Amino acid sequence: MSTAIPLTLTFGGQFARELEELAVPWQAEEAPDPQLLVLNEPLATELGLDPSSLRTPEGTRLLIGNQIPEGATPVAQAYAGHQFGGYSPLLGDGRALLLGEVTDIHGQLRDIHLKGSGRTPFARAGDGLAAVGPMLREYIVSEAMHAMGIPTTRSLAVVATGRPVRRETMLPGAVLTRVASSHLRVGSFQLARVNGETDLLRRLADHAISRHYPDAALAGKPYLAFFEAVIAAQASLVAQWMLVGFVHGVMNTDNMAISGETIDYGPCAFMDAFNRGAVYSSIDADGRYAYANQPVIAEWNLTRLAEALLPLLHEDQDQAVALAVESLGAFRTLYSAAWSAGMKSKLGLLPDTHDDVASPLVDGVLALLQEGQVDYTSFFRRLGSAARGTPETARSMFADPGAFDAWAARWLALAPDADLMDRVNPVYIPRNHLVEEALDAAIAGDLDPFNRLVDVLADPYTQRPGLERYAGPAPEDFGSYRTFCGT
Ligand code: AMP
Ligand code: MG
To answer: Which residues does UniProt mark as catalytic (predicted)?
Structure first.
């Protein structure tokens, strides 16, 4: 056997070892004709992997679990979850595998995970597969989120398998190689609790604490401190989504990571015109996961986490509930603080600007955007020019510029900091029409538009000449956008 560099990688099987009740050893399906479509070289290097070795046929097989590095025990992870509010006692990785953990060059433990690697015992009616388009889509959006500084799982590679996948039509199949600080979900705790084994629940919590919140171990009530740390991480995460206009689309409890990273990019999308009710997912008919509902849904999911953790919070159930309720109360405060601070930055206002002054300005501008169906991302970026004394580009976005002028006069009186605005208001986001254009070309065999888009999104806050078409809203004929789950 060759000794190509990626194979020297040491995979730990910490999750599989410590939590074997939640781990089913499994193998990825053999891909008939694996072709590397995209490799994230900076991420590979960060993981201590040699990109050129990963580009060899052997490296490509490693990326999809067809060649198992020494020490690795691939497992399908079991978890439960509330999907659209209804409880599913057993979900688990139906088409995914955890290859194992590696230690990156910063000493951090990172999961290497496969999506689209074939049926597992959790596949139910699913085929276990994924198509090239949705896997490249996750690659684009997750890497864009990372570049914006928002916690997220990462994308290491997408490999076409050479196996067709049956959806509405036959599509080329692919595996996404995903990297995360872990794949522990709210649903993992729900399963551990439902099994009624406090021992498993405790081991799961200890595992999560050691991986994500080591300080909690030092607290007087470690499991309560852990819960509070998850609350804080989610409050911060969802505030960041809201600030960039991201709609996750399927915030089921199995799609909420304990680490506070954005996970499971399915029917997600970025808003173009500001709309509190924005829903893109074809299956979210009631708008449960609409843009403006996301903070409330996060709080709802954290309440489900609290229920799962109760036996660890106090031996007396009533006291456990009282502790959980008190901790949950912090979510709204933390979320509001993160969101308000972020909105002040978007408007170029200093952090110490009093809320009595900032809040009416924030509410006022969002009402104008909603009313005028104004493109959220380009408006805030153009507002930077207004802060520099050139209001025309922002002003021209309103059918009724008078209302904007009145708002802008009050805002300009606070001397907004345009440089601060440019650091937090992205120029380039994964706009739906650009993503679709890149995926259509990629599926037809041309990866250039995909690679260009990924490049542009890697530096979202720096406006560059020649990239104007990446900075504007969709052309009128793009129509209303629909996204799909489980593709
Ligand atoms: P999601 O909401 O997309 O994260 O997926 C919900 C559940 O469905 C998870 O347990 C997935 O593993 C499973 N799933 C989604 N698509 C497939 C598929 N094509 N084959 C098997 N399981 C799937
Ligand atoms: Mg999921």
So the answer is: 254
Write out the residue range of the structural domain in which residue 11 sits.
6-180
Q: Residue 422: how many CA atoms within 13 Å on its side-chain side?
A: 12
85 is in an annotated binding site: no
Probe residue for ligand 1, chosen from 90, 93, 122, 252 as the CB with the greatest number of ligand atoms within 8 Å: 122
Q: How many domains does the chain have?
A: 3
Ligand 2 centre to CA of 115 (Å) is: 10
Q: Is the pTM of this model over 0.70?
A: yes
Give tens-digit pLDDT for 92-108: 999 999 999 999 999 99
User: Distance (Å, rounded) from C-alpha 177 to C-alpha 67?
Assistant: 13
Strand positions, DSSP E, 408-469: none
Asked whether 295 lines ligand 1 (CB < 6 A), one says no
159 and 194 assigned to the same domain: no
User: Are residues 20 and 163 located together in one domain of the fold?
Assistant: yes
Q: Where are the alpha helices (DSSP H) in 252-354?
A: 294-313, 317-328, 330-346
Our mutation pick for probing the ligand 1 site, out of 95, 250, 251, counting the most ligand atoms within 8 A of Cβ, is: 95
**Are 46 and 67 in a shared domain?**
yes
In the three-class reduction of DSSP (H, G, I as helix; E, B as strand; rest coil), residue 282 is classed as coil
CA distances from 213 to 207, 208, 227, 254 (A): 10, 7, 10, 20
Same domain, 329 and 352: no
Q: 264 is written with which tokens?
A: 């499971």
* Domain match, 382 and 461 both: yes
- Among residues 299, 320, 340, which one ends one of the domains? 340
Together in a domain, 144 and 247: no
Which one, of 231, 252, 239, 255, lies nearest residue 306 by Cα?
231
Is residue 93 lining ligand 1, measured as CB closer than 6 Å? Answer: yes
Task: Give the tens place of pLDDT for each residue, 367-402.
Answer: 999 999 999 999 999 999 999 999 999 999 999 999
Q: Is residue 100 a part of any domain in this protein?
A: yes
- The secondary element (H helix, E strand) that includes residue 230 is helix 222-244
